[in-house]
Specification:
It is built from 4 helices and 6 strands; from the N terminus they run βββααβββαα. With 120 residues, the chain is α+β, with helices and mostly antiparallel strands. The strands form 2 sheets. Strands 1-2-3 form a 3-stranded antiparallel sheet. A 3-stranded antiparallel sheet has the order 4-5-6. A hairpin with a 4-residue loop joins strand 2 and strand 3. It is globular and about 40 Å long.
């Protein structure tokens, strides 16, 4: 069974609100805190099943305040809006990086459909 890419370096740039993750396959992703927050793998965001997702709004200024290792497979991110239940597996972080452009456009479309305007 092939193993998924694993992070070799994780850096939080708090000023620019970017989590930079380098993987052992050579890919490096710069993931904005807002993006990580709105795509949190927590039940609070994802719901408990398909169609139960909760659209996250007003997260433009959110930042990460703490990164905690979870075993050797994930990290738990704590955000300054109090959200701290998302456990981001290496696979989840890799997918968020690889699919960042499409997922971000999807999020912006959902915001627009719901009548929300992002503060830029």
């Amino acid at each position: 069974m092939p193993t998924s890419p694993r992070p070799i370096d994780i850096n939080l740039h708090q000023k620019s609100k970017i989590l930079e993750i380098s993987f052992d396959d050579g890919n490096t992703y710069k993931l904005p805190c807002e993006y990580l927050r709105v795509y949190s793998p927590s039940a609070e965001v994802r719901g408990h099943g398909p169609g139960q997702e909760v659209l996250q709004v007003g997260k433009e200024e959110v930042n990460i305040t703490n990164i905690e290792p979870v075993g050797n497979y994930a990290i738990k991110l704590e955000f300054d809006d109090g959200h701290n239940t998302g456990i981001y597996s290496w696979d989840t972080l890799y997918q968020l990086g690889a699919d960042q452009e499409a997922l971000w456009q999807d999020y912006l479309s959902k915001l627009e459909q719901a009548g929300h305007k992002r503060k830029s």
